[in-house]
Write a structure and sequence with these properties.
Blueprint: H1 6-29, H2 36-62, E1 64-67, E2 71-76, E3 82-87, E4 91-98, H3 100-105, E5 108-114, E6 122-128, H4 130-139, H5 142-145, H6 151-165, E7 168-171, H7 175-184, H8 191-202, H9 210-217, H10 220-246, E8 250-253, E9 257-262, E10 267-273, E11 277-284, H11 286-290, E12 293-300, E13 320-321, H12 322-332, E14 343-344, H13 348-355, H14 359-371, H15 382-403, E15 405-409, E16 412-418, E17 422-428, E18 432-438, H16 441-445, E19 448-455, E20 461-469, H17 470-481, H18 483-490
Antiparallel strand pairs: 1-2, 2-3, 4-5, 4-10, 5-6, 7-8, 8-9, 9-10, 11-12, 11-17, 12-13, 14-15, 15-16, 16-17, 18-19, 19-20
Length: 491
């Protein structure tokens, strides 16, 4: 079966969108230049567009896919043919995305992410009808349906499946949540690189307005008005951007899956199977700490890509109050019980953190001594900058000491650590594939050690906690060794 015919139009649309700015630069802004780089560059660009256009048409004709009761089968390649088979059981995450192109033609896209490594770790249907997308998703449950041979068992299984498929809505942001997210995310700062990029393209035309800029720079009231206007535009841009991305945000679940839906213009629908979640990561950058917010990320053996380069699609709403985040996790994943009270580091570890050499400070001090910079023409001795950096490093380490906590509760381990930015990692014993401990000479003097934990994910997730007591490391190793016994009991 071939991909949807509009796949070719979608790829041409993507090609045009990605090439537009370069085309404007080389044909409009530098259109009158006889410099050899621009002159021959135009021919190379036109040749590339023609060849890419032909490749899109031929690849659509050559590439096909099909399925059976257990697997997808793909035939790809124009010059080198490649056949691949991906079992349904390897599929971890399901994402449906609908951008402006899809909405115009009432279509969608479907991404099925697997736990496999390599070129075929993700199945991508760039353009597909909504009905066919639903059909492909339902294929993943065929094995479950066909395990029942008796008719009465089939009816009972289907009734049970309907009950399991009922979605429970756990979270939808209010207008207040969206306003708070607009300022907490600092999304209004995104306009800065956009304006900087725009400046590069209009710079050749600026000499024509030399008189205007001279008049503007000498008028304080014009500078004040335009500065205020720039702030209003930036803030408005951030608000619109946040409302567009999170305006229709919804977190729901049934017995088997967690669903995350978001977006107004570009919509995405993400589904992850609960039993394939390897752990949780709760992050608090500095601004979110100020407002008491946290972002929860679901760690799985697949590696979902970000929708927009900022928020990963396997992330729960990134602006949740801490207490709501804890409650939401326990609703979605009842097997996880997040504990507020954890064990803090002993006081002696503060001395270790302060005595540990900072290579960043040493290198920065050396550079300051050599170059003796005067940023913004401020004449300040170089060693003052070195002392300021040292002060920031000390504050970071003191905060890290005060905020590092850990605990093991039955078969769950969790620890929270960090300075200006903090994060907590939570996982269960059966999800840990490897542990390791290490001890430096300084740590040995204070009877503490470093613990490293590895979880199965793509890429492999490694989490480290430093300067925990040796006694806890021994207990942690014994706790992990009971993993095999525990798994055998569960079987």
């Amino acid at each position: 079966m071939r991909y949807h015919p509009l796949t070719t139009l979608y790829r041409i649309y993507q090609l045009a969108k990605n090439s537009l700015l370069f085309a404007i630069f080389i044909f409009v802004i530098k259109g009158g230049s006889d410099f050899w780089l621009y002159k021959y560059g135009r021919y190379v660009f036109i040749a590339f567009i023609i060849l890419r256009f032909l490749y899109i048409l031929v690849s659509w004709w050559k590439e096909t896919y099909e399925w059976d009761k257990q697997s997808f089968h793909f035939k790809k390649g124009v010059f080198v043919k490649r056949v691949s088979t991906i079992p349904f059981s390897k599929i971890q995450n399901i994402t449906r995305q609908t951008n402006l192109f899809h909405r115009v033609f009432r279509l969608t896209s479907l991404t099925l992410e697997t736990a496999m490594d390599g070129e075929d770790d993700t199945i991508k249907f760039e353009v597909v009808t909504k009905d066919h997308a639903s059909f492909l998703i339902n294929l993943l449950e065929v094995e479950e349906k066909e395990t029942y041979e008796d008719t009465s068992e089939q009816i009972l299984a289907l009734e049970q499946k309907k009950e399991k498929d009922v979605k429970t809505i756990h979270f939808e942001p209010t207008s207040r949540d969206l306003w708070k997210a607009s300022f907490t995310s600092l999304s209004f700062l995104a306009i800065i690189p956009i304006m900087a990029g725009l400046y590069d393209y209009v710079e050749p035309f600026l000499p024509q307005f030399k008189g205007f800029w001279s008049f503007f720079s000498q008028s304080n009231w014009l500078i004040a008005i335009l500065s205020i206007a720039a702030v209003i535009i930036a803030v408005s841009f951030g608000i619109v951007r946040t409302f567009t991305r999170f305006g229709k945000y919804r977190i729901s679940s049934n017995e088997r899956y967690i669903f995350i839906d978001r977006g107004i213009v570009d919509q995405s629908n993400f589904a992850i199977e609960k039993r394939k979640i390897q752990g949780l990561q709760l992050r608090q950058p500095f601004m979110k700490r100020v407002f008491g917010l946290v972002e929860v990320t679901l760690i799985s053996t697949a590696s979902p890509n970000a929708n927009d380069g900022n928020v990963s699609i396997n992330s729960l709403y990134p602006f949740l109050p801490v207490h709501e985040a804890y409650a939401l996790v326990e609703q979605l994943l009842p097997e996880y019980k997040l504990n507020h009270s954890m064990t803090r580091l002993p006081k002696r570890t503060l001395f270790i953190k302060l005595l540990r050499l900072s290579y960043l400070w040493v290198i920065a001090t050396g550079l300051l001594f050599y170059f003796k910079p005067t940023p913004f023409d401020i004449n300040v001795a170089w060693w003052i900058y070195s002392l300021v950096l040292l002060g920031v490093i000390i504050i970071q380490r003191v905060l890290d000491y005060k905020q590092t906590k850990y605990m093991i509760d039955n078969d769950q381990v969790q620890w929270w650590q960090g300075g200006l930015t903090t994060q907590m990692f939570v996982t269960r014993r059966q999800r840990v594939i490897e542990i390791a401990t290490s001890q430096s000479l300084l740590q040995k003097l204070f009877n503490v050690t470093t613990i490293q934990m590895m979880n199965r994910s793509t890429p492999v997730h490694i989490d480290i906690i430093k300067d925990v007591p040796v006694e806890f490391a021994h207990f942690y190793r014994q706790w992990y060794q009971e993993r095999k016994w525990k798994i055998n009991i569960d079987k």
